[in-house]
Amino acid sequence: MTIACSHNPNTIDEKVDNLLSQMTLDEKIGQLVQYNGFWDATGPIPQESNTKKKYEDVKQGLVGSVLNVYGTAQVRKLQEIAVTQSRLGIPLIFGMDVIHGYKTAFPVPIAEAASWNMQTIEQAARISAIEASAAGINWTFAPMLDVSRDPRWGRVMEGAGEDPYLTAQVGIAKIKGFQGTDLSHEQSIAACAKHFAGYGFPIAGRDYNTVDVSMVTLYNDILPPFKAAVDNNVATVMNAFNVLNGVPCTGNTMLVRNILKHTWNFKGFVVSDWGSIMELATHGYARDRAHAAQIAIEAGCDMDMESYAYRNDLKPLVENGTIPESLIDDAVRRILRIKFELGLFDNPYKYCDSVREKTILHATDFSKEALQSALEAIVLLKNDNSLLPLSKNQKHIAVIGALANDKDSPIGNWRAQALPSSAVSVLEGLAKYTSNITYVQGAVLNTNPAGFTHKVSINETDKSGFAEAIAVAKKSEVVVMVLGENCFQSGEARSRSDIGLPGVQQELLEAVYAVNKNIVLILMNGRPLTIPWAGAHVPAILETWQLGSQSGNAIAQVLFGDFNPQGKLPMSFPRSVGQIPLYYNHLNTGRPAGFNRVFWSHYTDIENTPLYSFGHGLSYTTFAYSNLEITPKKNGEYTITARITNTGTRVGTETPQLYIRDIVASVVRPVKELKGFTKVTLKPNESKTIEFVLTDAELGFYTETGAFTVEPGEFEIMIGSGSDAILLRSILVLK
Ligand code: GLC
């Protein structure tokens, strides 16, 4: 590596400037190029893709990063080419979608969010970083911070639900987990706040579709999690694929250069999403690839993931004066700064320790942490007559449903290097408790070997297993039905127009119910589903999402009461797909319920409310809320306190939620907004006082010009066990 310097540059900025001053235009542009690795593709492969050329470019110092190259052997091999064969020996940064685990699979992100436990979420990200960094990865394309109100969109699986405050807290926890306290530590990896921005609001819930929202929605509901990520030193940000109000995000100067880089003073770098620079032409926003490259670099997109636009078109644009080299320099500085902060220049092979790889990935067990994450993610949606927990001496349990025996779907769609079919299945988890189980599949769920790149074909017709399921259910005391989605039915490019139980599962459920009403429904899914029939008939329902490696063990422990469920929904469950977008933090309208017998905002064929609301989740015990108090503090802040008592017979953990309503404001505010939550574990009859602090940050809002404002007036203060279970109310008068 030949990095000469006039004097000993001390600070990272000095080192960056010193290196930049030695770079040719080709080498500068090289830093802005990210190639996909040579096997896994997480997007459409462009025709320019050519493995031999990629190696050649690395050797010429014309590549800054690669994604989907992992394993110390492969990473070292590529890094050695970059560092020893290119003129300046600038190390590559290796990125990968380590979304909810690298080898140990944690619950999918929407499930993690259901735990509302930021320590557990941070821990999972920390372990993901420990495993990924042992395999050569130093950058993850996570956390995904796309708020969404539309469960038709498959990527709700990857986010933290419908609320900006919860999503922001989850994002902060994940960034801390991935990046640690020192980015240069060998077990820290750079995080990436994605997808910037608005990707979760696609029209009709169809992935990659157009996004058209008001600036009030953009500033108050979509941007806050990204602002929180930037305020918590996220190293990188990824463009979203979508058009936002007429301008594609990858070329959106207002969004990237003005808000992110100028107003928020973001110092890291922005990577495009897969091919999204080239897609500026497809959107109809760029004439061709060269025009796309110009728009993207001007808008503030620093690195080009797999569109070859920067590789092929930036140099002529600089040479013919279309774009100033200073734009290239700014992007290069940002990328080099992160590489210096990661310590890649001090030791380009720090992530290539094959002994550490073996020790971490093959001799370190994170099952305990994976189990804890899974347990806390489970949401008890319904439990009539306390059917749950089951007695450990329960006789004759029928277990019905293909997902009960599925070791693969719990691993989820974004599985990095988690081994296929490596999860503990429901059957395996139950077997640790009882042998009084008869399992029947009842119905095949998917009829083709699932895979990220294949569309999963769902069994819509084959009911040949129904008779056996009915026969077994008839002679069983209780029926545990495990129904839901194959893990490749949610995630990227997996939007669904009908979000009911896929295939013949609903019919199977009703056929079993006809002979035995004692049903515990275990849902395994990557998004909220519309299950109105189950909600009306089935006595007990557990939402278990896709819980990762320890799925079956967690489900069994909750089923038999060794763990008291504590999860709360991060996203509303609609009664019907016709209600979407459906979210708790809606506006009142001028004709809310009660306004008039006929003329009010409602449907004539269904209730307005969700089947299960944001923040909903039951326990095997009960809690009472009392003593709400608001205490103004000297510094203009307010302390909100209340008492929570365990009024049941089991130890339990509750998640009290604080909501506010700015009753009258210059921009109409939602009927309630989450502004605080905590977790409290109580023994029977034990009480604790919980405390929240409200500051301007929680009481204010953004106007359509992006100005943050706090307006005097009355605020309703609400504390509850769910957005639809407000148990304490009071009024705060802001002077
Ligand atoms: C995908 C996803 C993005 C991911 C990237 C790299 O298309 O949109 O979330 O990080 O490509 O795999």
Which strand order spans the largest sheet, edge to edge or round the barrel? Answer: 11-16-15-14-12-13
Distance between the termini: 62 Å
The percentage of residues in β strands lies in: 15-25%
Task: State the CATH superfamily name of the domain at 367-579.
Answer: Glycoside hydrolase family 3 C-terminal domain
The CATH class of the domain at 367-579, by name, is: Alpha Beta
Structural class: alpha/beta
Count of extended strands? 27
Sheet with the most strands, sense and barrel status: 6 strands, mixed
- Report helical residue fraction: 25-40%
The rounded Rg comes to 26 Å
Shape: globular
Poorly predicted segments: 1-5
**CATH-derived architecture of the domain at 367-579:** 3-Layer(aba) Sandwich
Task: Return the CATH topology of the domain at 367-579.
Answer: Rossmann fold
Bound molecules: alpha-D-glucopyranose
Mean pLDDT: 96
Total of helices: 22
How is the topology of this model organized?
Blueprint: H1 12-20, H2 25-31, E1 33-36, H3 51-59, E2 65-67, H4 72-85, E3 93-96, H5 109-113, H6 118-134, E4 139-140, H7 164-179, E5 192-196, H8 215-222, H9 224-231, E6 236-239, E7 243-244, E8 247-248, H10 254-263, E9 269-271, H11 279-283, H12 289-299, E10 304-305, H13 309-319, H14 325-341, H15 354-363, H16 367-377, E11 379-383, E12 397-400, H17 426-431, E13 437-440, H18 466-474, E14 478-484, H19 505-513, E15 519-524, H20 532-537, E16 540-543, H21 551-559, E17 623-632, E18 638-646, E19 652-654, E20 657-662, E21 673-677, E22 680-682, E23 687-694, H22 696-699, E24 701-702, E25 708-709, E26 713-722, E27 725-734
Parallel strand pairs: 1-2, 1-10, 2-3, 3-4, 5-6, 6-9, 12-13, 12-14, 14-15, 15-16
Antiparallel strand pairs: 7-8, 11-16, 17-18, 18-23, 19-22, 20-21, 20-26, 24-25, 26-27
Helix pairs in contact: 1-14, 2-13, 2-14, 6-7, 6-15, 6-16, 7-9, 12-13, 16-21
The chain binds alpha-D-glucopyranose.
Alpha-D-glucopyranose binds at residues 42-43, 67, 97, 141, 194, 273-274, 492.
